[in-house]
Each structure stands twice: as C-alpha cells, then as structure tokens.
Specification:
five-stranded parallel β-sheet, ten-stranded mixed β-sheet, single chain, alpha/beta
Length: about 325
C-alpha cells in the first residue's frame, strides 16, 4: 500500500552518494533513509535491535546491520553520515566518520534539506499531539486527492508505514523541539500545538523552551499557535484570525464540535476517537484544510473516517473483561 512517485528524484539533496545512517531504525531516520534511497543514493546503516522500521527498509534495497560496529561503516565507506541525538559521541562508527573527515549531518539537518524542494511545508510542533495532528492533516490531504508527502513519528495505519511519498506540492512533517532540531525547518505553515516544561536535560527552563518555539514560528511564513486549549490564532501577512472548537460534546462515536472562524460557524465536525484533547488536534487540522481551500465535505469525511496511528490509544485485544490498549 506504499505510494511512491517519481517526483522525489528531483529533491534538493545530492544523489548517487553512499550515505550511512547511524541509528537507521529510528522512526524518523528510517523514513529519511527511504527518501534518499528513492532519490538514487546508496543507503546503509546500523541500529542496536531489529525492528519493524528496519523491516520496511527491505522493500527499498537498503542494507542494515544489527549492532554498531566499526567494520560496518568501513566496509560501506560512505561519503555522508547521518546521525541523531540518541547516538553517543563515543560510538565507534561516528568516531571513524570524524577521523576520516566525512560529511556528518544530523537527522534534523537532512529533514531541513529535503523539505526545501516542496511548495508547501506544513510542520507540526508542540509538546503533545504532533503525530496525531500530522496524521489527521495527511488523511485530509489524501482524501482531497493532493497526494502529500508525509514524514511522521509513528506508523500510519492507512499506509502501514512511517512515511508516504507523493508529489512536491505538500510536505507534512513533525517538528521536534528537542535540542532545537525543528529550527532546521523554515515552513510555509508552522504550527505550535501546546508547550510544557519538557526535555529539561537540554532546555534551561520553561522560558528557554518558549523562546525556541517562538523562533520556530518566526521562521514560518504562516503561523498557527494556541490562544487557549480549544482555540488557535492563524497569523498570515500580519493579519490574525481566531479559530475555535465550540459546543464540544461527546457521543457514541467520539466528539462533535462546531468549527468556528471568529464568531462564524464553518462546519460541524464529528470525530471517531476518544480523548477531549484530540478535539484540539482536530481543530488544527481543520484550520489547515480551510487555509488550503479544501471543501468542508472533504475534511469532514476524512476526520470522520480517520484510521489513526499505531500505539496512539490503539485497542489491541480483550482478555476476559479487560480491554488492552497501547
């Protein structure tokens, strides 16, 4: 069910290179490896354990090694190395790359470079809700037959993968704040869902976190940020518009709410998942749908039929009277 188009081959990153990913099994790293493989690069890498993310790479001729080992990278002899913040500085593959003066990019730098060739980059940041909101926007654009390219920090049930490769009109990605990695992005639309004191091994305090989110918004052509839990401001060309979810009520399917622009009703929205916090995530997806002039009937249908992301309140099974939820 993976949708691949030839449009990716003109992306703004060198092709016909040997690129090695240290930590290739990561949810983001594995999808970036596929993007670069489709462009015509030869890809390899290593990770500590075999995972479902690694198994997806088999479909694209990407080789990988279980365990970080000096011989892995020496045998491949790459031009470019991609690493992430989970890799320690004493990793023997990384040490080899530095000693041999190879070009080393972080995961976020690669994401930033790949995003530059898209007409519209929609980047979703926030302490909570990034994966679900990215998935919702993706489903709306798929329903609108826009063939988006998607980079997501989870497995979309619709595609059974952590990426979707479409055309170059839309690139939808999560934007993680850890170690300011999202500052490698300069989005068309930058979204902040919410902010809390998190990743305090890197940030000094909550003010430091908010400062980074503000820089991210300043780097975005169009900004969407919260006014309160169920209302957001869209700022475009210096003009601010308030969008809100009102008349929120729970029913047997999920939640129903009124999608409002300032004080005007745009549409009545029915979700099919639980958790009132997901009303906020859905509201942002509606705002982006309206921004790109997608018809209410289209985004209402996509939200109503949303298939979800694995491990996000995924019902696994029932044992006797207990429901097991991931």
């Amino acid at each position: 069910s993976l949708s691949i188009s030839s449009g990716l081959k003109s992306y703004n990153f060198p092709s016909k290179r040997e690129i090695y990913f240290i930590g290739i099994g990561g949810i983001s790293m594995s999808s970036l490896a596929v993007f670069l493989a489709i462009k015509g690069n030869k890809i390899s890498g290593s990770d500590l354990v075999l995972s479902e993310n690694l198994k997806l790479l088999d479909n694209f001729g990407i080789t990988y090694n279980i365990g970080h080992n000096l011989q892995n990278i020496k045998n491949f002899n790459p031009n470019i190395i991609v690493t992430n913040y989970a890799i320690s500085q004493d990793n023997e593959e990384l040490i080899w790359a530095k000693r041999n003066k190879k070009k080393i990019f972080s995961r976020s730098e690669i994401l930033g470079k790949l995003s530059k060739d898209f007409k519209n980059v929609i980047a979703i940041s926030g302490t909570h809700g990034k994966t679900t909101t990215t998935a919702l926007i993706s489903e709306i654009l798929i329903e609108a037959k826009q063939k988006p390219t998607v980079h997501i920090g989870g497995i979309l049930k619709r595609t059974q993968s952590n990426f979707l490769i479409g055309n170059k009109k839309f690139f939808i990605t999560e934007a993680c704040e850890y170690k300011n990695s999202f500052l490698s992005l300069f989005p068309t639309v930058g979204v902040v869902l919410n902010t809390e004191a998190d990743h305090l091994d890197f940030f000094k305090d909550f003010s430091d976190i908010k400062n980074s989110f503000n820089i991210f918004l300043q780097q975005s052509k169009i900004q969407i940020f919260p006014k309160d839990e169920f209302s957001f401001i869209l700022r475009q060309n210096g003009i601010e518009t308030k969008y809100s979810a009102e008349n929120i009520r729970k029913n047997e399917k999920g939640f129903v709410f009124s999608f409002m622009e300032n004080n005007n009703l745009i549409a009545s929205i029915q979700t099919n998942f639980i958790g009132k916090h997901n009303v906020s995530n859905t509201l942002v997806a509606c705002i982006i749908a309206k921004l790109y002039k997608i018809k209410p009937s289209v985004y209402k249908k996509a939200i109503r039929n949303y298939t979800g992301v694995k491990r996000r309140f995924e019902i696994i099974t029932k044992i006797n009277s207990a429901t097991i939820i991931h």
